[in-house]
Amino acid sequence: MRIQVSGKQIDIGDALRTHVEDRLAEAVGKYFDRPVDAVVTFSKDRHEFVADASVHLTTGMLVQAKARAGEVYASFEGALERMEKQLRRYKRRLRDHHRFREEPILAMEAQSYILEGGQADEADYSEPDSLQPVIVAEMETKVPHLSVGEAVMQMELAGAHLLVFRNDAHGGVNVVYTRDDGNIGWIDPRNTQ
Q: Which HAMAP family does the UniProt record give (predicted)?
């Protein structure tokens, strides 16, 4: 398993790097025996340390966890605890559905844009001169080919509120999202035709 440990404007010592590599390999190894890639990034936010961990599984799924604590080791342990819980759920779902994807999830390339939003304070917000949005950032992203169940699982594993995917059943673009009432919404434009 390849593990990249880095710090944003903080120095990561060899002791912390070794601790992260050992604990992460042990935790992921309990649930998945095939090699995976992992990235753990530490940063400082005011008086707290933030540990942001993501693990790419060979099935194509991405598991992400983040935790904050007053001590750098405690922040990592919090993120690792969350990640273990997600991995346990994912493994249980694979076992319960008797479905194991042998090959990685296919994904197509797509453009992703971040648009400039309005001000949070309505008094400071002014009406734009045109209705053309201002693009703040542009990047490449991947749109995976998943079943609806896998898409919901991926959304939960990544801690996202929304996931765009291509439906394995028919190849069309679909969206799953978390609703305000806590349920999951699913948008399938193909069903309206």
A: HPF (MF_00839)
